Amino acid sequence: MKICLVAMSGVRVRTPELAELGVTLPQFVNRGKVVASLPSLGLLTVAALTPDDIDVTYREVSELDQNEELEAFDLVGISSYSAQIDEAYALADRYRALGIPVVLGGLHVSMMPHEAAKHADSVVRYGAEEAWPRLIEDFRQGRMKPLYEGLRSGVFEAPHYVKPRFDLLRGRSYNRITVQTSRGCPRKCEFCAASIRITSTFQQKPVDRVVDEIRSAIDVTHHPFFELADDNTFVNKRWGKEFLKAIIPLEISWFTETDISIADDDELLDLLAESGCRQILIGMESPDGDDLVGLDPRDWKRKHSDQYVQAIEKIQSRGITVNGCFILGLENHTTEVFPRMKEFIDHSGLLEVQITVLTPFPGTPLYHRMHREGSLLRERYWDRCTLFDVNFQPKNMTVEELEEGMRYLFSEVYNEREYTRRKRQYMEIVKQRHGASVM
Ligand code: B12
User: CA-based, 20 to 30 A from 382: which of 68, 118, 191, 208?
Assistant: First the structure.
């Protein structure tokens, strides 16, 4: 039996003015190019959950020729994010027209199973763990069901844990690989559309499993750069230190996403530097606490916002850059947020910055609230779920003002002159600490 797993990869922006700006803003484009080359960890996991006697082929959607007839398989599985879901559905329709059954899984269809069912023989909601082996067994017996619900807890424990099939990447030209150490995040921000949506609790992978996965990835790719596919890696500082000590001998370079609380722990910060961490991405969302009221149920982000500048300095002084992420269009934002954000970024010491627009991804509490309040601009806007396209009526400004403000910030922040200035500032912070530790 032959199964093909197709990854819907690629990055995108819909609004033409922003796409155009992107072309002229080197930093923005470079990061896009770098991340676009990541393989699908979700599908490598699905492959690992497939019984050994089945022949699994992994394909990026870009490898499929739009004009040629699709290769025949007994079953095809396709991953899903919102932004390219219509391409995923169109591909599924093409396979099905050839009589090849299709299974859709991943974040988007987990939130929109009924929509997905129109384009698939079966839909897998939530994690593939537990659901996929059951689906394959049913498929072999000719009784595959239209919907399977996968595990939302215990995915990193026996008997459900599997090591992703990194071996499927052998001979391919990826220079970045993702590894997941946890699913979910206790902060529960209203807008979050990441793995928190497919898990019922914060789940953490045992350190020895993560190390084993990194070793396997190193085996198949030459000196890869690792990106942890986590929502918030260092929720548990004790686990964090154990993990960091365990990866020091692997001599890797890596990047992850976490929250500002890591700055409270000097030992953790030192270990981060020693373990080859190059960059930490932190969702700061907005410069002032007042903007952050109600963003998460415990107002955690608001309570920590006055520590941003100090935390950035502490982390960056270890030679780890902070990628500060900001969201435009939050409930309390008025047009004065644009210059205020620019001012904060200028003085924050941040080297890397990511500015996105508030996006009501399907299935998020934000989506449900905006739906209820009638502030969504269109009924079905999935192709604009890019983090750069406005899909809702902001509370305190017009859509045009929000778009204009974003363009203003893009051109002010993502240009060569500003980057050089921020780089100089960053080197100064690193030098200062280095000087201090020598004395
Ligand atoms: C790596 C990554 C990418 C890679 C993806 C590489 C690839 N080939 O798939 C790249 C760089 C290409 C990428 C692109 C984009 N991304 Co991205 N990305 C991530 C990231 C950091 C990790 C995802 C991951 O690997 N998770 C780990 C795996 C194990 O989990 P999983 O994919 O959910 O898979 C499990 C289940 O969902 C299920 N499953 C998944 N697929 C399938 C398929 C089948 C058949 C079955 C049965 C089961 C199944 O089983 C898996 C195991 O349990 C997340 C953020 C985060 N912290 O999670 C954002 C994230 C997924 N990205 C996001 C966004 C917005 C984008 C872009 C739109 C950005 C842009 N402007 O271009 C594009 C989307 C392009 C598209 N195709 O639609 C959003 C998506 C939200 C959503 N609901 O759609 C996220 C959550 C970040 C965020 N800020 O909210 N991204």
Answer: 68
